[in-house]
Write a structure and sequence with these properties.
By secondary structure, the chain is α+β, with helices and mostly antiparallel strands. Helix content is 59%, strand content 21%. The longest helix is centred in the middle third of the chain and has 126 residues, at 31-156. InterPro entries: UPF0194_transport.
């Protein structure tokens, strides 16, 4: 732009000089000189027009260049905004990545804690199983001990084949006895048996299963009811009288 203005300035200066020369010549020169001077003025005018065209062209180029500069500035500003937005997006994404990493770390910690809890629970289950097995063994051992003790108790306990009253004991604690030796005399009180003798005259009226009334001289108020269970087929003679043994069973009153 500065060069173009300089050219215009030079052209204007040349035009001024040519005009002055023309004016001077017109005042005292011939026609040939005037023609030459007019040609010089014309050439100066053409140079001025050419310089003006260059100035106009330069102005247009300058305006176009300025437009391109403005467009470039706008593009640059837009690019900067996009860069800033991209940076913000990147920062936001980075924060999301960090948050995701923290969430992942926390989840991994929870998984590890759960795994440790599971292992601890598994150990406790194993300990409980071992304790259960040990308890079962102890229960089995206790049952065996109980069975052994019960067996020993049963072997040490003398059990009669019927309920009754101990009439006599023929052994003391610590004595050694054999299996065939009788050490206790037991009376069955549930059913008592009375042995009587009936003479040959009355025996014909006695039958097995017959009801019998028992009276005791020492207890006149006591009357017992019994049943004939046995009549001996053989009699024995005493003082010329034949006597037959008869067994009568009766229940002892409570």
């Amino acid at each position: 732009k500065r060069n173009s203005q300089l050219e215009v300035y030079r052209a204007q200066l040349s035009l001024g000089i040519a005009q002055q020369n023309l004016d001077t010549i017109l005042s005292g020169t011939d026609e040939d000189e005037i023609a030459i001077l007019e040609m010089s003025v014309e050439a100066a005018n053409q140079s001025l027009e050419q310089a003006q065209k260059q100035v106009d062209t330069t102005k247009q180029s300058l305006e176009q260049a300025q437009k391109r500069v403005d467009a470039a500035k706008q593009s640059l500003e837009q690019a900067r905004k996009q860069v800033d937005a991209a940076k913000q997006s990147e920062e936001q994404a980075q924060r999301q990545v960090e948050a995701t990493k923290q969430s992942l770390e926390q989840a991994q910690k929870r998984v590890e804690a759960a795994r440790q809890s599971e292992e601890q629970a598994q150990k406790q289950v194993e300990v409980a199983r071992q304790s259960e097995e040990q308890a079962k063994k102890q229960v089995d051992a206790a049952r065996q001990s109980l069975a052994q003790a019960q067996k020993q108790l049963d072997e040490a306990t003398i059990t009669a084949s019927f309920d009754g009253m101990v009439a006599s004991v023929d052994a003391d604690e610590g004595d050694s006895v054999s299996t065939a030796e009788t050490i206790i005399h037991l009376i069955d009180l549930s059913t008592m048996e009375l042995n009587v003798e009936v003479d040959e005259i009355d025996i014909a009226g006695v039958k097995p299963g017959q009801r019998a009334i028992i009276e005791v001289d020492a207890l006149p108020a006591l009357e017992l009811e019994g049943e004939v269970t046995f009549i001996s087929p053989l009699g024995r003679e005493e003082a010329g009288v034949v006597l037959y043994e008869v067994k009568i069973s009766f229940n002892v009153p409570e």
